[in-house]
Amino acid sequence: MPIRFHRFICVAFLTCCAMAHANDVYPSKPIRLLVGFSAGGPTDVIARVVAKDMSVTLGQSVVVENKAGASAMIATREVRNAPADGYTMLFSSLGMNVNPILLGEQAGYNPKTDFTPISNGANLPMVAVVAYDSPLRTIADLLKKARSKPEAVSFASSGSGGSGHLAAELLGTSAKVKMLHVPYKGNGPALLEVMAGRVDFMIYPVIGLADFVATKRVHILAVGTAKRLAQFPDAPTMAEVGFAGFEETAPWVGLLGPAKTPPAVVARLHDAMTKALAKPDVRSQLEKLGAVIVGDTPAEFTAFLKRDYERWDNVIKAAAVKADLN
User: Fold this and answer.
1) What is the tens place of the pLDDT at every residue in 42-91?
2) Distance (Å, rounded) from C-alpha 37 to C-alpha 27?
3) Fold held by 10-123+251-318
């Protein structure tokens, strides 16, 4: 064999080996982590806390990019259409399942087939609250009034199709009562109306609620967690008042990639994320927000998302919830 040809074969072989090795090394460049909400919100804050620690484990920056708008559908669609190489990922929440139920094909993606679940990072429990001086002191009081006549009880929410709206509709459908939904543009304005007594109650995210309880502006009827919350030890869980499984209505925040993301990439990302969630400083930051840390496996997250979709599909149909396109 001529020496030149022998050298050519050797160089070609070594080049192929180097390329194969390079392709096996993941990640070899920064990872984009898309969030469908503005900076500063719960999903964004949790994404940034987790991404910072994942960057250390992965040896590459995990860069959070806010792609707010259209109920997080802009970010979700971008990840759906991205290459399945692990470099464009999604940090999503409840709306990923809810939007296609409300909008059908207009949502621009199928949550069941277009994504690869990595891990459910945490959930943000919901709490049923009334004004501090409301005569409704328990869930039983609330339902007794609701059964007196249709829409005798009103409830506020941050908007049609949001987590608080759907959780209240789930309560109504489970108890077989019809309540009047009063949507607002955000949880803040909705809670002000409840505190003023103009709306009977709302199901509010736990984040920031302790201050309103301490200043005697709201009274808690029940908490949507599996166990009583340490900061509200006297408040019963929804299971204690007859509504088991309500903790799964809590808005989740989790990591997903495009469909067909390679198993090795999924494993690498899952390892980095769960290691981050296990660290005391990360746990402390998230728990101060009121988040309940999950950190499940891809298979567990996939099964959870299936249950989540089915639950909201049933609630939305039973309560005839319509999309708010305004």
Assistant:
1) 889 999 999 999 999 999 999 999 998 888 999 999 999 999 999 999 99
2) 25
3) D-Maltodextrin-Binding Protein; domain 2 (3.40.190)
Closest among 161, 170, 112 to 303, alpha carbons compared: 112
DSSP symbols for 174-243: HHT---EEEE-SSHHHHHHHHHTTSS-EEEEESTTHHHHHHTTSEEEEEE-SSS--TTSTTSPBTTTTT-
Query: Same CATH fold, 126-249 and 10-123+251-318?
Result: yes
Tell me the mean pLDDT in the region 179-205: 93
Q: What is the DSSP letter of 1?
A: -
In whole angstroms, give the CA distance from residue 50 to residue 46: 6
CATH of domain 126-249: 3.40.190.10
- As a whole number of angstroms, the distance between CA 282 and CA 290 comes to 13
d(CA 92, CA 64) in angstroms, rounded, equals 12
How many other C-beta atoms lie within 10 A of the C-beta of residue 129? 26
Q: How confident is the model at residue 300 (pLDDT cuts 50, 70, 90)?
A: very high
